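Write out this protein's structure.
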Amino acid sequence: MIRYEALDGATVCICAPVRAVAQFAELELRLGLAGASVLAPVPPASELSPIERARLATLHLRKIEAADVVVVANSGGYVGAGTASEIAHALRLGTPVHLAEDAVELETDPETYAALVSRTASIEVRPASGFPARLARGSLLTVFAPKDGRRRCAWFRVGEVLAFPGRMQAAVALDPARVRAGMDVDDLLAHLDRAYPGEDEQPFTALELEFIAELGEPVHLVAPRRPGAVRLLARDEAGAIALTVASVGRLELPARRLAPRQLPVQAAEQLARDLFRGHASAVRLAALDTEVSSITGDARLYACDVRRFDAAAAGEAAEHGFVFTAPAQVPGRADPWTARVIDAHVTRGDATGVLVLEDGQLPGRRTAWEWLESDDPPQGVPVTQAGVWAIDRDGRAVLQHRVEQGRFALPAGSPEPEDRDWLSTAAREAFEESQILIDQSRARLIGFQVTYADPGFPNGLAQARFVAPLLGYLPIAPDTDPKLSVARPAYRRYLADLRHAARILGWGAHADAQIRAAEQAALEMGLPVDRPAGDDYRDHGDTDLAGMPATWNVLL
């Protein structure tokens, strides 16, 4: 339920299904009286085209991004598919979500919970008496497994509620593989018999569950989102920098979120005390990043020296997950923004003034990119590269993990004379470098990233960007481009949601607009980028493509 008194001064975004129009008007009034600034949905209109509806959906996602809190008008416990996507988007951003009516709770075993959250299962079947009474299509459901000891829970939307007179009828009518991967009818019957002995003739119910997000804790936070974070650059006496292990094994500077009304320097001092106790000198503001991306990082950097760091202190640091890294080793091990910041700090030396950075670099050293949402590049500017955001059926984009180089990249490359157009270039490069096939018939050009700062291109250069559904995978392999003089190792494939992909690539502030354009295009194609599965590697190929000719220019 909503605690209105906790929302005084917060910016609140209302999410509501179409059927709850009357409720969200009342909700907007109550939130306003509580002192909240309200971002409401655009009222529905039947005459809108599918493209216009998709644009309004994207606009509402931007409202969610601007909010401290999201409130859901789930009248009668109902949420539509679009509202479920908005809830998932808010939770991915770390924004607290309040429900007008509490979600229905469903207890399950750890194995079933893991299968539902990983999407290897999408149907839960059990005797009708084992489900809460007030379940219907569109109900918001909290699924939890108390016996796993990890206090995890997840939200699902009920897609369909199917009733059967008995166990046998349920097993025959359902797709067993959607109940548990690899099951057939006999396996499902045996599973139900073990789980619910003696209840063969009892009515059974099956729920089709649509995953929204995993919450982590049974009780969702009610406090508004904390405003920003600080990062700490701590060096030992040898000059090595304390880094922590972040996503996909890369290193980053330790960070701390700001508490409400907390000064950044207070957060940095507290972080230094917690991590290094008496071994750290006083912190000082070292850098401000003036163009940090809202997707990829935080703008304030504080520095301190770690003194008297003996073996015992080093052991304490290791318990916190620190990896002390020499500056020369940082580029191959850290995320791009961290590597740029440390390089700028080392280049600048130990000057006492505050360093002003542009996307992690010293002023004048950054290649300035602009995002142009257009069907054509600027007049007279050559297109030197084409790349593709290839989105899988679970809403994730394919990135190349160039392990030997210690970095990630988008599938992209330079046009060749035999390429029909920029899309052909993007499709060919995706196949040669990442061994993936994209749906060229549905691919969409979303724009160009442009720079005028490359001395080799005095008139500027442009790089085309497409969004396309992913059709299939072949096993990863070395680049098949016959023009390569030296073979290179295979690139691993890393699947990540678009926002996380932007952080991994570390492209900077210009990437925000590109990611928004990619999200909108993907949503208009029906790809679930607003509700993606978790990040994962995918290096193996599809079994049904094993005998496919080694060419990118195919239709499946």
